[in-house]
Design goal:
The chain is α+β, with helices and mostly antiparallel strands. The protein is 55% helix and 13% strand.
């Protein structure tokens, strides 16, 4: 069991507060995912034997010193609650309460609950449900800094139920799929689908008509006069497949993005199969670490094969860059935040053993697979499929209005995909940073597919308008436009922090913005690679359809 603060998962060990502590605290052996999740469970001082009723059983009697009273008071004022598990079923309860009724803030009274009631339901020899309540009449006044005598008590009641053992988790998963929640989710999906259909229909119609006119015009121009000056996107056919600047970084970003995309798909498959049922503590973290390690070969292969297609020569440096592009910032953020957690003695601080395990996974699994993928990519010897020849010297790009610059285009590109997902974002944030449960993975998967479609379409449309304006530097632009949704999600973090959450203090703030920066950066890489792939397919298609000298 452990104690948590309400607004976020800032967790501390249960016996960090001066409860009745046994002589030897027995710690539970934690799996990797549970440790990453911040779980540090210890045996509680309450003895709950099967079918044995207890009434006002004493846990211990003790005198709280002034400092201990101050510790408890601070925890109660910050709305700390305890979290326990009995037969793998979670239970929560507040440590105490602040009496604010019709009082001036200077007259608030702080109370500690000293009597806990456990209500346990069983079916034959199985525990089905457990509830905990604190006795509102058994209170200890902690308002003043003085020594207090406390007698901690607990009561246990057993009742029979007809609920089957395999249905006992339903109660927890239903909380997020209550009818009014589901209505909001479906409303958000219908809203997103309408947005997508309108957008894709609108873009498809425009692009089809415009392209058709372009094809007819170019075909007609060829028949009419050979010496006519070319205009529009056909005019830059000799430059459109000129390789981008910083191609090693480009290939590395594409490799990392493809790996994160694969990781997301695998996580969704596991979620839809039902691996992440509520309170399967740490399963998601374990899956993320293991799948990320196993998919690093994909990053190596994608990055190196694309780098070699772009006629890059230093593939080893490209491979190193691919390995560090996402892991590097993540590692630096982790080092800083882990130091903060250690300073706060919070359970979010990873023990040394776990850090060693993660480093071993990285050196023995991730790195070798990355290298193997890189070697396979280098030896694939695929050539870049360009339907038109590239000229020797690049054409000058004509002066363009301000809204055709990279930043305004990114703002346009990121807004639409973000508007399709923002309602669902609130639930995900409340689940990750609050203590809501998120179980509707099917809806989340639909939203993810919508996000991919909108990202691909908007990038294709902006690429077309860019080429029509005779600006041939579309490679980086398509990647940045695709990934710009990640920047919008980070902007949403600011809104969520100030308007929707009760987070405060340096630790909660740094954890929230630190880890959300890494997640949004991951989204940037993943959606950027989706956007670029879509744009590349489109550009190849339109240039294959016309005859160019």
């Amino acid at each position: 069991m452990q104690s948590r603060s309400t607004p976020t998962s800032e967790t501390y060990r249960y016996f960090d507060l001066p409860f009745c502590s046994p002589d030897a605290v027995k710690e539970k052996k934690e799996a990797l995912g549970e440790v990453l999740n911040g779980d540090r469970l210890v045996s509680a001082p309450y003895k709950l034997e099967f079918l044995k009723h207890k009434d006002s059983e004493q846990v211990c009697k003790r005198t709280l010193k002034k400092e201990e009273v101050a510790k408890f008071r601070s925890a109660v004022n910050k709305d700390y609650y305890f979290q326990m598990y009995y037969d793998d079923l979670p239970i929560w309860g507040f440590i105490g309460k602040v009496d604010k009724e019709n009082k001036d803030p200077s007259e608030y009274k702080t109370y500690l609950y000293k009597h806990i009631h456990f209500d346990i339901l069983y079916n034959k020899d199985r525990v089905i449900e457990i509830n905990v309540q604190t006795d509102p009449h058994a209170l200890v006044d902690l308002t003043e800094d003085k020594e207090v005598d406390v007698e901690f008590l607990y009561t246990v009641k057993w009742r029979e139920t007809n609920t089957h053992f395999d249905k006992r988790m339903d109660k927890y998963s239903q909380s997020s799929s209550l009818p009014h929640h589901l209505e909001i989710h479906w409303f958000s999906i219908i809203n997103s689908c309408v947005t997508v259909l309108l957008l894709t229909g609108f873009l498809a119609t425009i692009l089809m008509r415009v392209l058709k006119n372009d094809f007819v015009k170019y075909a007609h121009d060829e028949e009419a006069a050979e010496d006519q000056e070319e205009t529009g996107w056909k005019y830059i056919h000799g430059d459109v497949f000129r390789f981008p600047k910083y191609k090693s970084l480009f290939a590395a970003a594409l490799g990392s993005g493809t790996q994160l995309f694969t990781l997301t798909i695998f996580i969704f498959v596991l979620a839809l199969v039902g691996v992440f049922y509520p309170y399967n503590r740490g399963a998601l973290f374990t899956a993320l670490v293991v799948i990320y390690a196993l998919t690093s070969g994909i990053a190596g292969y994608t990055a190196t094969s694309f780098y070699c297609q772009l006629e890059g020569t230093n593939w080893v440096r490209n491979l190193l860059l691919t390995g560090c592009l996402f892991c590097g910032p993540l590692f630096l953020t982790f080092c800083f935040l882990n130091t903060v957690a250690i300073a706060y003695t919070a359970t979010a601080a990873l023990p040394f053993g776990t850090i060693v395990v993660i480093v071993l996974i990285w050196t023995l699994v991730t790195s070798p697979l990355l290298v193997l993928g890189g070697i396979a990519g280098k030896n694939s010897k695929a050539e870049f499929q360009a339907p038109v020849r590239t000229t020797k010297y690049p054409r000058e790009i004509p002066p363009l209005p301000w809204y055709r610059a990279t930043v305004p285009q990114m703002a346009m590109a990121g807004f639409l995909p973000f508007s399709a997902i923002y309602i669902e974002l609130y639930y995900i944030f409340a689940s990750v940073w609050g203590h809501r449960i998120y179980t509707i993975y099917s809806i989340l998967f639909i939203v993810f597919i919508i996000l991919l479609i909108v990202t691909a379409f908007i990038t294709v449309a902006l690429t077309y308008f860019q080429l029509a304006a005779e600006d041939h530097e579309w490679w980086w632009r398509s990647f940045l436009c695709g990934g710009s949704t990640g920047i919008f999600i980070y902007a949403y973090c600011l809104y969520y922090y100030y308007a929707r959450s009760d987070m405060s203090g340096f630790m909660q703030t740094s954890f929230f913005f630190g880890y959300m920066a890494c997640i949004c950066y991951g989204f940037f890489l993943m959606l950027g690679s989706v956007g670029f792939r879509a744009a590349l397919l489109f550009v190849r298609h339109i240039y294959r359809s016309i005859k160019c000298e």
